[in-house]
Amino acid sequence: MTAEVLVLLDHADTGALRGNVLELATAARDLAGGGEVHGLWVGDEPLDPALPVLGRHGVSVVHAVTTGDADPRLTPVLAEVLADVVRDTGARVVLTLSTFENKEAAARLAVATGAGVVTDAAAVERDAEGRVVAAKTVLAGSWTTRCAIRTDLAVVTLKAGAVVSRHVEEEAPLMPEVRSREVVASERATRVRVVERVTQEPSDRPDLASADVVVVGGRGTEGDFAPLEALADEIGAAVGATRVATDEGWVGHEAQIGQTGVTVSPRLYIGAGVSGAVHHRGGMQASGTIVAINDDPEAPIFEIADYGIVGDLFAVLPQLTDEIRRLR
Questions:
Q1: How many helices (H) and strands (E) are present in the chain, helices listed first?
Q2: Which residues contact 216 (CB under 8 A, 6 or more apart)?
Q3: Alpha carbon of 321 to those of 86, 158, 171, 192, 232: distances in Å?
């Protein structure tokens, strides 16, 4: 059984699939065109609960790989696992979520295999010649490009929201076959070791990189993110920030959106007190609908906003939150 497309199945320590993995499975089916879609599960976390969901989304085989004493979250180790499974399956396309770790692993995989790589893709398809073509924005979102991968192996990291996940249209969805094995990482891949991990306190809010709705604060918040958090909790949104807000220490750097932070493409982006500097726009311009709230009518973000509100965010956001709460 040869895989046409291999999907990296990112999951939490509990074994729960990351929210946008099923989008990858849908994109993989479209690319495979009737060929096999395989999944790669790396780690010791429980796999069984995810199998029915993966089957409903067209994954026919799941490769469950352990790495012994090597930490599979280290990108050199992950890259070697990907290369091993690609060789074993004959996969011609590898799809991953567009996270910092996955993009680094994709680059290492390309060095090892000679693959062509496109990161932060907003869409992926095959052209008339059968080549994998990925669309992405570049130069701080000012250009949209289409990149055809001409190598034998194509590696694409997809941004969250790039594809709408769809079930397989079958009455009896398949149950994926599980193939388990261990991949021994090389000495080179394990030169770096993790000496400590600090677990972040769990939050009911969705992950910033994969959220469908994002509420973002900038310099205009003056450090007070309470109105943004109240709105985010009301509509089930993630909370993000501009570089200024994180540099000032108002929120953690993990919330930073932009060229040097997280790239997001939610269906709804709400920016409060965000000026729209070019380095921030590069990380959010692919959002579906952009709502901007700023008391400066000349703020650059209004140039790309679908809806703009010129006003004080500390007056606008509480009214918006109260009205949504009333309607609900």
A1: 8, 15
A2: 228, 239, 240, 241, 242, 257, 269, 270, 271, 272, 274, 284
A3: 48, 32, 42, 47, 9
CA–CA separation, 13 vs 73, rounded Å? 11
Tokens of 59: 């994954």
Measured CA to CA, the distance from residue 322 to residue 277 in angstroms comes to 30
What is the distance between the alpha carbons of residues 24 and 48, in angstroms, rounded to a whole number? 19
Per-residue pLDDT reduced to its tens digit, 13-45: 888 898 689 999 999 999 998 889 999 999 999
Token digits of residue 78 = 């992950």
One-letter amino acid at 102 equals N
> Count of residues for the chain?
328
pLDDT at position 2, please? 59
pTM over 0.90: no
Nearest to 20 by CA among 12, 6, 10: 10
Phi/psi of residue 82, nearest 5 degrees: -60, -45
Which pLDDT score is estimated for 160? Answer: 76
Of 231, 265, 303, 272, which Cα lies nearest the Cα of 123? 265
Ranges of residues in the chain with a pLDDT under 50 are 1
